[in-house]
Amino acid sequence: MITLDFTNIMQEAIGPEGLKPEDIDALKEQIKDVHREISGTKWPAFAFLDLPYQDLSELSKIGEDIRKTSEYFMLLGIGGSALGPKALLDSLKPFYNLKHTPKIFIYDNVDPDTLTSILSIIDLRKTTVNVITKSGSTVETMASFLILMDRLKKANKENYKHWIVATTDPEKGILREVAREEGFRTLSIHPDVVGRYSVLSPVGLLPAAIAGIDVKGLLDGAKDMLEKCKAEDPWKNPAYMAGALMYLMGQQKGKSISVLLPYSDRLKSFSEWYCQLWAESLGKEGLGQTPYPSIGTTDQHSQLQLWMEGPKDKVITFIRVESSSDDITIPDKDIPALSYLKGHSLGGLIKAEQEATELCLTKAKRPNMRITIPRVDAYYLGQMFLFFELVTAFTGLLYRVNPFNQPGVEEGKNLTYGILGREGYEDKRREAVMYKGKMQNLKYKI
């Protein structure tokens, strides 16, 4: 089981910048109310807590067919539909494409140069395309899909539909309609599961299965984390405690930036996944924290100076990995200045670096806490995904904001629809034209 150590976020360790046990206990009634909302399923979007118990039979069948028939697998998605799968692949199958088939490509933008580069590598006669959008209206994903569907038709004629899998809402939406009409294979996203909480749904599990990741292990880890986080008392529930600490750091101590600092290259993409989860869930009504993806030891040499002596606006969360699957011993060479490395390994060195950075921050009275994961495997990664999702949703409810919507993002989508001329968005088009004209009149250009 992963563990949470928050010693260095308390006043006993860092003085006035830290919290007292009484600060946490003072949230007792708020936490009680939030726990009631979570356990009582008042919010349908807490359906993500049911994902560890899903039936994997259809997903496994499709995944196995793709592994047997495809040389390439291309995922079309954006936001959680891409960040989650990428975090899974980078964590559990690093450098996958250099060693395995089918080669997996994740296209999560609408940059034509990137798509052109991918198309120059893959053979569309041997490529399965997985298009992921629950609503079917995600403009970036659907635009990319129209291009790929057209190219697949040209490459495969009538058989093209075999090379498409649509991951979408089980009943409604544009993509579901297209899949019915064209006869694509489909996988369903629970209608109440929000994109950034969907990594343990077919969104992340299909590419994981294709890559040979232990999908059952992921869900088993998530199940065990759910059991660990059932208590109402934050002193017995690591997800509630982590959420309460981050909430108090932001509200009482002015810590407006959350740095996630894993000491493992394999968890770099996990840190990026966390950033969307934290930012999009909590950044509302003037509240929330800015998430900051980082990586140890690299950012000791690029960011630690700022964390140590810059603005006191950050709380750092370390992720420490206890053991590597393949540690490497440092050779004993006759170089006196490097003799201190004798008997050590790279795994030991990265642990020492993490411990030293933690000590530096604590000495500088900068709040930090540590999550320890025994190793990076499917079981413990499943725990990590579920843990951070629950921490985020819990913290949002402490803020009294909806941790499952994204009104700011929706406004950007609506303005994009207006600019592109989508029917029903004429007001947004007029708004965009008026704003553009107003800005042009200012003439601040070089």
Topology:
Elements: E1 3-5, H1 11-14, H2 21-25, H3 28-39, H4 57-69, E2 72-76, H5 80-92, H6 96-99, E3 103-107, H7 112-121, E4 127-132, H8 139-156, E5 164-168, H9 174-182, E6 185-188, H10 202-210, H11 215-228, H12 238-253, E7 257-262, H13 268-282, E8 290-293, H14 304-309, E9 314-321, H15 346-363, E10 368-373, H16 378-399, H17 407-420, H18 426-442
Parallel strand pairs: 2-3, 2-4, 4-5, 5-6, 7-8, 7-9, 9-10
Antiparallel strand pairs: 1-10
How is this structure best described in words?
- The structure is a single chain.
- With 446 residues, this protein is of the alpha/beta class.
- The protein has 18 helices and ten strands.
- The strands form two sheets. A five-stranded mixed sheet has the order 1-10-9-7-8, sandwiched between helices. The chain has a five-stranded parallel sheet with strand order 3-2-4-5-6, with helices on both faces.
- Strand 5, helix 9 and strand 6 form a beta-alpha-beta unit.
- The longest helix has 22 residues.
- It is globular.
- The termini are far apart.
- The relative contact order is 0.14.
Could you give a short description of this structure?
The protein has 446 residues and is an alpha/beta fold.
Which keywords apply here?
446 residues; alpha/beta; 18 helices; globular
Number of helical regions: 18
Number of strand segments: 10
pLDDT averaged residue by residue: 95
Question: Helix amount, in percent?
Answer: 40-55%
Overall spatial form: globular
Strand content: 5-15%
**Helix/strand/pairing class, anyone?**
alpha/beta
Radius of gyration over all CA atoms, rounded: 24 Å
Which regions are unreliable across 5 or more consecutive residues at pLDDT < 50?
A: none
Multimer state: single chain
**Side-by-side strand order of the widest sheet:** 1-10-9-7-8
- Beginning-to-end CA distance, first to last residue: 57 Å
Reported for the largest beta sheet, the result is: 5 strands, mixed
